[in-house]
Fold:
Amino acid sequence: MKNASTSSGLIVRIKGSDYFVVDGGEEIRCTVRGRFRIGKNPGESMPVVGDNVEYRRETAENTGGPVGLIVSVERRKSIFARGGSTEKRRYKVLGANLDLVFLVHSAKDPVLNPRLLDRMLVAAESGRIEPVICLNKIDLVAGGGGTAPDMGVYTEMSYRVVPCCALDGRGIDELRSLMEGRRSIMAGPSGTGKTSLLSMIEPGLDRRVASVSEKTGKGRHTTTHFELHPLKNGGYLGDTPGIREFGIWEQSKQTLATCFRDFDPWRAQCRFASCTHSHEPGCAVKEAVGAGSISNDRYGSYLKILEDLPELSD
Structure:
């Protein structure tokens, strides 16, 4: 229950040790208590963009605006995270309490990388966020310019696939409608046209994102900065730097299959409850692959991710 001396807000931006919290249209620059840093993985226990927090107003001189102290973080309903590169930082949360993640990939230049898309879908499923696949630059394969990637395997799993073109506006109204009143994030490889889509979805948003990136002193696609931007029709939208690779966190060899929707009809039919669907006899998932009921490419993505995952711990 909220303390009478505190207020509720949403973290929309983090810069250094400052956490910018929005409360009723006002932005308050906050700091955090030291107790947030207690734990085996200190960086992971800190508040992140998208967290709903309780904060206490404080009095300070020459601050250039209202300030406060974050005293607690509400339980997260979802997170979008990628595996870390070190044992100390096992994973990095890109955003919390998100409703949708728009996975932006291109039909051409660069060509769609299904393995990367599958990894990002696993992250969305694991983090309890509904993914939307945006197939951008669809104009480059229209009118004889090439063959569009076959997205049937994803639509059959009830993933929403939106063909987009920032040049002629195809798919923009659908994306804008999906984002209205929700907290969303756009993520995808560099060069897939996320910035162009941003400028079509909400004019000026691409400039706001670029301005934020410039403040870090790093290139547009190397910054790790992430911010939630308010949309004029309600909701928030965040952009992320271009992604080259995507590590999987939280899953084990025994649980990864729960993030593959196309495995669902067969997982319970396996001979062993702990089946990893890779080498065990009596595996219904492998039989479904052999029968053509599960895509060979999707199964290949599964096996590739499985290689890097640990066994389920007791």
